[in-house]
Amino acid sequence: MSSKNYGQKTCGTPPYVQKIRFENKIKKRNPQKICSDCKETSDSIKLFSSKVNKLEEIIDNFYKNPIKKNKNNQISIFNAKFTLNHIPCELEYDLSKFSLENLHKLVIFTTQHCNNNNKYSTSIENIDDK
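The chain above was modelled as a monomer; its predicted structure follows.
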């Protein structure tokens, strides 16, 4: 084969041609698997956000529909009904006169009393009993 024929065949074409296919080089990344700690954190954040949203709704509704002030319907009045030695008792507290510490004690006592009387106890109590 002469060099003349070789030159005619390759005349006008680049010496090296490479086809690049971009669709083959781009790989879709699989979403990362979320660890159990991240799932728990995400669940906790969702739960906390829902509780905050409920509180915001209650506050918004409170300002939209304010309670009329009179002696029979005061927010700061707390009525406690209970039985002592099989005798029904009722107490009325004006919570506006309570200190923050006393309010905290009242909340603790009330929630413990409600949880003890509730036939569907929380999972925390079940764990403590074991």
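Helices lie at 3-9, 22-25, 36-64, 100-117, 123-129.
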